[in-house]
Specification:
The complex is a heterodimer. Chain A is 80% helix and 0% strand. By secondary structure, chain A is mainly α. In chain A, helix 4 packs antiparallel against helix 5. The termini of chain A are far apart. By secondary structure, chain B is α/β, with parallel strands linked by helices. In chain B, helix 1 packs antiparallel against helix 2. The longest helix of chain B has 20 residues. The radius of gyration of chain B is 34 Å and the shape is elongated. The chains are: A mainly alpha, B alpha/beta. At the A-B interface, helix 3, helix 4, helix 5 and helix 7 of A face helix 1, helix 2, strand 4 and strand 6 of B.
Chain lengths: 166, 422
């Protein structure tokens, strides 16, 4: 099940970041992304040593290029999300390699997939808001926001975490 | 910091920088799924590991080769952990037989992993076991790795083939009834001879056949007294005397011989003491019975070859620990320098016998070489050494460790006493 999801995520990301730009933008880089996707898929299917982080960063770079070339966010965000899913599942399978396929590992895989998809779905939905609501932010405000967001996130994490009393 | 965290934060930083540089709103949006993922990982990361590891074993003392059932309990006394991987590190000398030696799963607060496993151990004492526990968030971005120790000592006694008979009749005996023939007439089972009838001899001892042949006198059968003997076993655990190959060690055969001899003599009711001479000198006082057998086997379980610079040679062997006139079995591969000390032992009035696992044949078997010049020279040197020992009145069982010990003992001693009984 996890492997099938991984393969599907790679195919999905490769199509959205490779095939669509190739067809819509006539971009030759789309072909390279498709080849990279096929290569990643082959490595994962062959259960050889794959380099998920390398492929993930390449796919993010491709998404960045496509965004700068004017490809719609409706295509970019699902592809980035699926690349993220593929990267995560590939690393998860590496972590679980060598352990017996017991009841607990199966439960862990199910739990992991549920959690991952919830996070990625929430992130994707947030990222797609600019498609629905258009707003403009002046650069100084954006700069302040960029500084403030990490601080808020840190504060939020520290505040939300259930700390145990010693 | 893991590579995944570096890659993820680097990607977010690059996307944000590119967005800020180009003032392109869509570029910022790409970072949002990544930031959400990172936020979830930070939120779920394990703060610290508060784990308790407990191990229990089915038997605290076993014989080498017997399986031991172990149960490992890992209890989470801290916050819930998304992914916990437990990997058992088996110490050297322990072989995994069956069961679970690793486990992966989520470990909620207060929950526990229980790993049931079966192991086989080589001779020795195993007091602590190490277990590697790693925990991380669901994304595997923040991880903790700890090595936990659990204590459940297992004492593994040597495996040996029991001897059917005592290899020799010990010379010096004590006052109590036992199984060692003394050569003196008295109450016993073994027929010693016939002597003229003396007033007071029970009638059932009269040898009527001989009396019928001689009309002038009566004759009585005489039986040999059987007493307990003092047996001393010296195990040479000096590292310089040990030869080992990747799979085997000559010292293990010495231990096997010591265990077999000790058990045989103790079963016969003799008083047995043990001296381990190696990295340190360990002395097991003379004693009788099954508990003493266990005491000796426990000492043999713990011993390993060692080097002691102060007591390097056999000259320092504390022979006076043994009771006077006891029979001493010296178990060692034997070296040229051992002749003198053994001679001194003999001169002190002890009956001395040596059991020597053959180091030349052991090494040649390990190396697969039994024809070379070196092998022939070493064999000749060993033959000369054994001849020297025989010249001093020390009989030696030259034991090729591929054959049973009993055969080597029978060949060397043939059931005869070491000294003529006085």
């Amino acid at each position: 099940m996890t492997k099938a999801l991984l393969y599907a995520a790679i195919v999905f990301a490769a199509i959205f970041l490779g095939a669509f730009p190739l067809l819509l933008l006539r971009s030759s880089e789309g072909f390279a992304t498709l080849v990279a996707g096929v290569f990643w898929l082959a490595l994962e299917v062959g259960r050889k040593r794959s380099f998920p982080t390398l492929f993930f960063l390449y796919f993010i770079g491709a998404a960045l290029r496509n965004a700068l070339n004017g490809l719609s966010l409706l295509m970019i965000i699902p592809s980035v999300s699926s690349a993220l899913v593929a990267w995560d599942l590939s690393r998860f399978l590496l972590r679980t390699k060598g352990f017996d396929e017991g009841k607990e590992v199966k439960a862990l895989r199910r739990r992991h997939c549920v959690f991952l998809f919830s996070v990625v779905f929430a992130g994707g939905a947030l990222a797609l808001i600019p498609c629905v609501v258009h707003f403009a932010i002046p650069f100084p405000v954006l700069f302040v926001l960029l500084l403030a967001i990490p601080l808020c996130l840190r504060k939020a994490v520290l505040g939300f975490r259930p700390e145990r009393e010693e | 910091m893991t590579g995944a965290l570096v890659a993820l934060t680097g990607a977010v930083f690059c996307i944000t920088a590119a967005g800020a540089a180009t003032l392109h709103g869509d570029v910022f949006a790409i970072a949002i799924p990544l930031v959400a993922y990172l936020f979830a990982a930070v939120f779920r990361r394990p703060e610290r590991l508060t784990l308790v590891l407990e191990r229990s074993v089915s038997r605290a003392a076993v014989v080498q080769g017997e399986p031991v059932d172990c149960s490992l309990l890992l209890l989470n006394r801290g916050a819930s952990l998304d992914e916990v991987a437990v990997r058992e590190r088996t110490p050297e000398g322990v072989a995994r037989q069956d069961g679970e030696f690793s486990r992966l799963g989520a470990l909620p607060e207060g929950a526990a992993f229980r790993l049931e496993q079966s192991i086989r151990c080589r001779r020795g004492i195993y007091s602590s076991f190490e277990t590697e526990v790693s925990a991380c968030d669901f994304a595997g971005i923040f991880s903790f790795v700890e090595t936990l120790e659990s204590h459940a000592p297992i004492l593994v006694r040597p495996e040996y083939r029991a001897l059917r008979d005592a290899p020799v009749h010990p010379s010096g005996t004590r006052g109590f009834a036992g199984q060692a023939p003394t050569g003196q007439d008295g109450v016993g089972c073994a027929f010693l001879g016939v002597r003229e009838y003396r007033a007071g001899d029970p009638l059932r001892r009269v040898n009527w056949k001989k009396a019928a042949k001689d009309e002038r006198a009566l004759f009585s059968n005489v039986f040999e007294q059987e007493r307990v003997a003092d047996i001393g076993i010296v195990l040479d655990a000096r590292r310089c005397m040990n030869i080992s190959s990747p799979e085997d060690s000559l010292f293990e055969y010495s231990v096997e011989a010591a265990a077999a001899l000790a058990e045989r003599f103790l079963d016969d009711g003799d008083r047995v003491s043990l001296l381990l001479f190696g990295g340190c000198v360990e002395w097991i006082f003379p004693g009788y019975g099954k508990k003493h057998t266990q005491r000796i086997l426990d000492a043999l379980a713990k011993i390993s070859p060692g080097k002691n610079y102060a007591l390097e040679g056999l000259v320092n062997l504390p022979i006076k620990l043994f009771p006077a006139k006891s029979t001493i079995f010296f178990i060692s591969p034997l070296g040229q320098d051992d002749l003198g000390p053994l001679c001194r032992m003999r001169a002190n009035g002890h009956a001395v016998a040596a059991v020597s696992p053959d180091p030349v044949k052991f090494a040649s078997n390990s190396a697969g070489d039994s024809t070379s010049q070196a092998y022939r020279l070493a064999s000749a040197e060993r033959r000369a050494l054994l001849r020297g020992l025989a010249g001093m009145g020390i009989r030696t069982a030259d034991w090729d460790v591929r054959t049973p010990l009993e055969g080597a003992l029978r060949k060397a001693f043939r059931g005869k006493p070491l000294f003529s009984p006085r």
